[in-house]
Design brief:
Layout: E1 3-4, H1 8-20, H2 23-29, H3 33-51, H4 58-70, E2 78-80, H5 82-93, E3 95-98, E4 101-106, E5 109-115, H6 120-123, E6 131-135, E7 138-139, H7 145-152, E8 159-165, E9 172-178, E10 180-183, E11 187-192, E12 197-202, H8 209-222, E13 227-231, H9 240-248, E14 256-261, E15 269-272, E16 284-288, H10 295-305, E17 310-313, E18 321-327, E19 333-342, H11 356-359, E20 371-372, E21 386-388, E22 394-396, E23 405-406, H12 414-421, H13 424-444, H14 448-454, H15 459-471, H16 480-510, H17 515-522, H18 524-531
Helix pairs in contact: 1-3, 1-4, 2-3, 9-10, 13-16
Length: 533
């Protein structure tokens, strides 16, 4: 359970440190302590309120004071205002209440990207590509994304009427939708890549993540899974306990998964595998990149330290700090670092954060060459501390999880990035499916493998897309089209697949040109070998 400060004294104490920044330490060392700092803060706030040249917003001043204090700590100790807190709680709770659609506002019109699986909109037959033109009989053209959320979300059991225009169908239709709890899934995709290889992509570690993965593993096992790729790329983490439970799925006995150290002994913990699962000998490869952080690194670190499977991709972010969340009286929150975590071999994963400005930017400046790093000889001249895996391989601490096989992500041109940034792939396929969707679905909806193997956009259609992008003022550079050709084609195909099969179609299509995944499926013999040591 999250702790709450029950008295305003503590909240004011936090603000004190923020407003006086470096003077706090001088006050404490001179014997005046936090009470002297508190008194000084109250004086400054009172003078400012009475005499400042303009009318002040005290809430903004207090928020700035809190952020000022926390800025002198580590990058992950943060203050979360009330409005942001509501969104964060929703994401980690794993559900919200509403009608259950993913949407975008395209040309002032609410466009359904996808109905959420298990939600009331899907149950009523609302489809990707539908346009919502009215909400409760009032035109919805031109309203903002925030207004859409406010109108469509609401308590379970309440009703809302939406009017749908569906391309290719004459007129409009009204749907009376009873709002319900809408699941927010951590498992973005789960499917068999081939007859033996299962694939699970996990986007975060929320309250329901372990249950979702257990369910996904059960489905894959029924389909004949004999080996697994667990994709933690761009997974920023979440609840540490969920990471422990997920590592436990693959580790036998009572192996240590992670331990924490703090200046307060109450936060020192050792967390071990504790349950037996049928996946403890399944050949395993974990995909990671620079966006894999925190709980993702706990899972990857435990798998690597016990030589349970291979880690493939790029060095992870390097966040080895544990936060505890303290709720404040106004439902804002303080997320404060209370300890550091270490992998079973003793590695601290946290990167140096003395230069906080560079902390989030220098991650993109890493240069890692594609090569086997099984014995971790690439880092042999490193100044980082050396540790040993169960099988006697060297691994290094102090800067993320370094993979056993470095495979850099594809370097895309500025042109491709702009196509994606301005949403041009989706906008083009939205029009394409308005015209061709029925034909494509009739041919492939029940045959996804045929779609992957046989469907391709024609040269003319690719040319039409380039022309469409040019009309939107996104122009290719001299060699961009040559470099991006395959990625543009597969990105467009993936949007069509998402329209028909949701996230499974999206991921399955893009894995065909995913060099990190393609390397992973080649390395299962090595993953099996180290797991048998």
């Amino acid at each position: 359970m999250l702790n709450k400060f029950k008295a305003p004294f503590f909240a004011i104490a936090i603000l004190t440190a923020g407003i006086i920044l470096g003077m706090l330490y001088q006050k404490i060392s001179s014997g005046q302590g936090i009470q002297g700092s508190l008194n000084k803060f109250e004086q400054i706030l009172s003078f400012t309120d009475k005499y400042y040249v303009d009318k002040i917003d005290s809430r903004k001043l207090l928020d700035a004071a809190i952020n000022g204090m926390l800025d002198s700590l580590d990058p992950h100790s943060v203050y979360i205002p009330k409005k942001q807190m509501e969104n964060i709680e929703e994401q980690f709770r794993g559900n919200f209440e509403g009608i259950g659609i993913e949407f975008q506002v395209i040309n002032d019109t609410i466009t359904v990207v996808s109905p959420i699986t298990g939600g009331p909109s899907e149950a009523l037959g609302i489809l990707a590509g539908d346009r919502i033109v009215k909400i409760n009989d009032k035109p919805s053209i031109g309203i903002t994304i925030e207004q859409v959320r406010n109108k469509l979300r609401g308590p379970s059991g309440t009703k809302v009427t939406i009017t749908i225009y569906r391309p290719g169908v004459n007129g409009t239709n009204d749907y009376i939708i009873t709002r319900d709890k809408i699941p927010l899934y951590s498992v973005d995709a789960c499917f068999m890549y081939d007859k033996e290889t299962g694939y699970i992509s996990v986007s975060r570690f929320a309250e329901t993540t372990t249950d979702e993965i257990i369910s996904a593993l059960g489905e894959l096992s029924k389909k004949g899974m004999k080996k697994l790729v667990l994709d933690l790329r761009n997974n920023p983490g979440g609840y540490m306990q969920q990471a422990v439970q997920i590592a436990d799925l693959f580790l036998s006995g009572d192996k240590m998964i992670v331990y924490t150290k703090s200046r307060n002994s109450e936060f020192n913990e050792e967390l071990h595998a504790s349950k037996t699962y049928p996946y403890e000998k399944t050949p395993l490869i974990v995909l990671v990149n620079s966006g894999s952080a925190s709980a993702s690194e706990i899972v990857a670190g435990a798998i690597q330290d016990w030589d349970r499977g291979l880690i493939i991709g790029e060095t992870t972010f390097g966040k080895g700090l544990v936060q505890k969340q303290f709720m404040l009286a106004d439902n804002s929150a303080l997320r404060l670092t209370i300890s550091r975590y270490y992998t079973p071999s003793g590695r601290l994963i946290q990167r140096d954060y003395k230069n906080k400005k560079a902390y989030y930017t220098n991650i993109d400046t890493r240069t890692e060459s594609d090569m086997l790093n099984f014995e971790h000889n690439i880092e042999k001249d490193s100044t980082k501390p050396v540790f040993m895996t169960k099988g006697g391989r060297k691994v290094y601490g102090g800067g993320g999880i370094m993979p056993d096989y470095f495979v850099s992500s594809s370097k895309l041109t500025d042109y491709f990035v702009s196509l994606r940034r301005f949403n041009l792939f989706y906008l083009f396929i939205l029009k394409y499916m308005d015209i061709n969707g029925d034909v494509v679905k009739r041919k492939f909806a029940d045959h996804p493998d045929d779609f992957n193997n046989k469907f391709n956009l024609s040269k003319k259609e690719i040319h039409d897309f380039i022309k469409f992008a040019t009309n939107k003022k996104v122009n290719p550079g001299r060699n961009d089209l040559k470099k991006d050709k395959d990625y543009i084609r597969m990105q467009l195909k993936a949007y069509i697949a998402r329209d028909i099969w949701k996230s499974e179609g999206w991921y399955k299509t893009l894995l065909e040109i995913d060099n990190q995944f393609q390397q992973a499926v080649k390395e299962f013999s090595k993953a099996e070998k180290i797991a048998e040591q």
